[in-house]
Amino acid sequence: MNITNQHLLKNNLLKTKQITEDTLGEGKLIEGDILNVLDKIDDDVITVGITSPPYNKQEKQKGWLVKNVVYDVYKDAVPEPEYQQNQVNVLNEIYRVTAPGGSFFYNHKIRWDRGTMYHPIDWLRKTKWTLKQEIIWDRVIAANIRGWRFWQVEERIYWLYKPIGNYLIGKELKSADAKLTSIWRGAPEDGRKNPHPAPFPLWLPARVIISIVDTETQGIVLDPYMGSGTTAVAAKLLGHRYIGIDRSDTYLKMTSDRLDNAASEMPKIQAEIALHNVQTTAKERTSKGKHKGKYRPTDDDGKPTQLSML
């Protein structure tokens, strides 16, 4: 492995529970099988995580906008029951390493195979997590232009929560974060600029981290399917530590290079930060005897849409 980044580790060189809050430094990139690497992380370490695993698309289910989904070292074609059980196992290990009160955001999509629908909720309900919210990611473009169904332009992001005791609701979001709604609209990363087959746009992990981690606290951010390193870059630019896991030496080298040049991506982070803003909260308006207001969708210029005026 020709990588000089001092934070990059190989799974087979790690001892059990070697990754702790004290040994993490500013972050670690770890090459190896996900379950094996997660086993080396101490209990209750992670503040927040976000990932998008391979979807088990059999490396052939594509449309004219998307090439075959082929990863560097992972074959995205296993029997569906085996795939779903593996996801349950991975998510339960992530639950163990996440601190009580912590969250994990899991990006996936509804799939069909020969008329059978596979929905992420099928295996998420089998995990230890409390399912807090389903967020719709409107990706704007359709990945598969065929007429069997309405064009699928959305994916799901599931907010999974590890309760403190029996309190399942958890901490309330700030108004500046909650106002972004449960529908996130934004195109995926341009595949012509990123050789990974399914990279996150930078705003997406940034939105999760900004909304969940207190700005005055340094959190630890996990992405167990690190890919091209977008989550680690977002964590670094927002002042947090990170753990990124991937099987691919190529993707980890890509991540290492991006982290070295992370400052160049700061304008995208600043654009996302600018969205997390309200002039006055509902509580402040109530205290002044003013109307709390209602959520009204707006266009890109901040003007109410026709729907909001009905």
Briefly characterize the structure.
With 310 residues, this protein is α/β, with parallel strands linked by helices. 25% of the residues lie in helices and 20% in strands. It has a nine-stranded mixed β-sheet. The chain has a two-stranded antiparallel ribbon with strand order 5-6.
What does this molecule look like?
- This protein is α/β, with parallel strands linked by helices and 310 residues long.
- The chain folds into two domains: 8-265, Rossmann fold; 279-310, no CATH class.
- The chain is 25% helix and 20% strand.
- It has nine helices and eleven strands.
- The protein has helices at 34-38, 80-97, 121-124, 175-178, 203-212, 230-237, 249-260, 266-275, 282-287, and strands at 8-10, 27-31, 46-51, 98-108, 111-113, 116-118, 130-138, 154-161, 183-185, 220-223, 241-246.
- Strand 3, helix 2 and strand 4 form a beta-alpha-beta unit.
- Helix 5 packs across helix 6.
- The radius of gyration is 20 Å and the shape is globular.
- The N and C termini lie far apart (60 Å).
